[in-house]
Amino acid sequence: MRHFIPLTAMLLATAAIAGPPRTVTLQVQRMTCETCPIVVRKALQRVPGVSSASVDFALKTATVTFDPDQVKLAALTQATTNAGFPSTLKAAP
């Protein structure tokens, strides 16, 4: 006889195991027009495990929230670089 675990129970168990999301700020280079932040944001949102990304054109930064169990920081900087906008982790003040 097979025993089935309801899907909601499995999802809740998985969510309980996952670590807290992490938020970082990237310093983004080469943003020169109002369209650039849109390209950077979309590139970051395509990375599996990223839950949110916002880009500030005036400050030349991107703030990214992601699941550190799924995403490494290098994947975020690689995504922006591949889109034509190299980035680095912004040092905390």
Features:
four-stranded antiparallel sheet; 3 helices; single chain; 4 strands; 25% strand; Alpha-Beta Plaits; alpha+beta; 93 residues
Number of domains: 1
Give the name of the CATH architecture.
Answer: 2-Layer Sandwich
Q: Average the pLDDT over all residues and give the rounded result.
A: 88
Percent of residues in helices: 25-40%
CATH topology category name: Alpha-Beta Plaits
Structural class: alpha+beta
- Radius of gyration equals 17 Å
Number of distinct beta strands = 4
Spell out the helices and strands N to C.
HEHEEHE
- The best one-word shape is globular
- pLDDT < 50 stretches: 7-13
Distance between the termini: 60 Å
Q: What's the tally of helices?
A: 3
Largest sheet: 4 strands, antiparallel
Give the class-level CATH name: Alpha Beta
Secondary-structure topology with pairs:
Blueprint: H1 7-17, E1 22-28, H2 36-45, E2 50-56, E3 61-66, H3 73-82, E4 87-89
Antiparallel strand pairs: 1-3, 1-4, 2-3
Helix pairs in contact: 2-3
